[in-house]
């Protein structure tokens, strides 16, 4: 080892003399050799992470176990506005978050389960559902039937999802870069806009929305106009708009509106 160091120093001395810098210190040229060294971040500490006994997603029933199935109306309010349940993390670090409202069929749930269970490493990663199995009935009449004759028979069941709801949650001894491509593949196939988020990114999104409300310079916000009933606007506003202050139009969300 000492001979290698002596040979490196000798070669640097020859280079210095070749360029006419006989009095120049050798450590100036040693700095050039060290310029390519990289510093890597410290590995996260997973000593307090406990993996569950069954780390993979469980199978969800296609039809709910009911004694007697009952028909329901559409009730589009199930997918309108922000989610009040399952909008924060529980035990995982990463999740797929719905950025709009919509309905999940059983085929979507099977796609999520099979894609994630096949591609994650069960020794280091676990996944948990944050939505229920399909429970809302959707009726449909047969092809070629005439109008009338009452409501059609139940065709299938769906799971309603609102803005901000976590679909599936992942965690364990794993970083976001290792599973982000899996969650992104799933999020692109959902029937509503969805995004892959971590605990920090979800908190950052809520913090930015709060900053927009606190630092808003425009006094004529939707909330002030509606509460003040300016120009008699309440005649054309629904209770849904008054409650959400114009940040939602049905199942769609306006991220820039305060």
What percent of residues adopt helix (DSSP H or I)? 25-40%
Query: End-to-end span in angstroms?
Result: 66 Å
Order of strands, widest sheet = 3-6-1-7
Global geometry: flat
Q: How many strands?
A: 9
Sheet having the most strands: 4 strands, antiparallel
What is the SS-derived class?
Answer: alpha+beta
Low-confidence stretches: none
Mean pLDDT: 86
Task: Sketch the topology as an H/E string, one letter per element.
Answer: HHEEHEEEEHEHHHEE
The share of residues in extended strands comes to 15-25%
Output the number of helix runs. Answer: 7
Structural Rg = 29 Å
Helix/strand layout:
Layout: H1 2-18, H2 27-33, E1 94-98, E2 102-104, H3 106-119, E3 125-129, E4 136-140, E5 153-161, E6 166-172, H4 176-188, E7 194-198, H5 199-214, H6 222-228, H7 239-244, E8 248-249, E9 252-253
Antiparallel strand pairs: 1-6, 1-7, 2-5, 3-6, 4-5, 8-9
Write out key terms for the chains shown.
single chain, 258 residues, alpha+beta, four-stranded antiparallel beta sheet, three-stranded antiparallel beta sheet, 9 strands
Structure description:
The protein has helices at 2-18, 27-33, 106-119, 176-188, 199-214, 222-228, 239-244; strands at residues 94-98, 102-104, 125-129, 136-140, 153-161, 166-172, 194-198, 248-249, 252-253. The strands form 3 sheets. It has a 4-stranded antiparallel sheet. The protein is flat and about 95 Å long. With 258 residues, it is an alpha+beta fold. Strand 8 (248-249) and strand 9 (252-253) form a beta hairpin.
């Amino acid at each position: 080892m000492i001979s290698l160091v002596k040979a490196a120093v000798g070669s640097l001395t020859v280079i210095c003399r070749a360029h006419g810098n006989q009095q120049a210190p050798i450590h100036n040229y040693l700095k050039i050799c060290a310029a390519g060294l990289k510093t890597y971040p410290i590995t996260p500490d997973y000593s307090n992470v406990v993996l569950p006994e069954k780390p993979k997603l469980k199978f969800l029933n296609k039809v709910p176990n009911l004694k007697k199935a009952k028909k329901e109306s559409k009730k589009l309010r199930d997918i309108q506005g922000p989610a009040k349940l399952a909008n924060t993390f529980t035990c995982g670090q990463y999740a797929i978050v719905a950025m709009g409202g919509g309905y999940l069929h059983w085929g979507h749930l099977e796609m999520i389960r099979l894609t994630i269970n096949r591609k994650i490493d069960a020794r280091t990663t676990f996944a948990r559902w944050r939505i229920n199995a399909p429970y809302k009935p959707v009726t449909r009449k047969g092809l070629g039937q005439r109008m009338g004759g009452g409501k059609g028979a139940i065709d299938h069941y769906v799971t309603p999802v609102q803005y901000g709801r976590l679909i599936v949650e992942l965690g364990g001894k794993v970083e976001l870069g290792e599973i982000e491509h899996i969650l992104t593949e799933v999020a692109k196939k959902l029937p509503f806009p969805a995004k892959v988020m971590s605990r920090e990114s979800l908190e950052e999104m809520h913090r930015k929305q709060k900053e927009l409300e606190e630092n808003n310079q425009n006094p004529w916000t939707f909330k002030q106009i509606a509460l003040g009933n300016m120009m008699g606007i309440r005649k054309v506003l629904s209770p849904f708009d008054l409650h959400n202050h114009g940040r939602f139009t049905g199942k769609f969300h306006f991220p820039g509106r305060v």
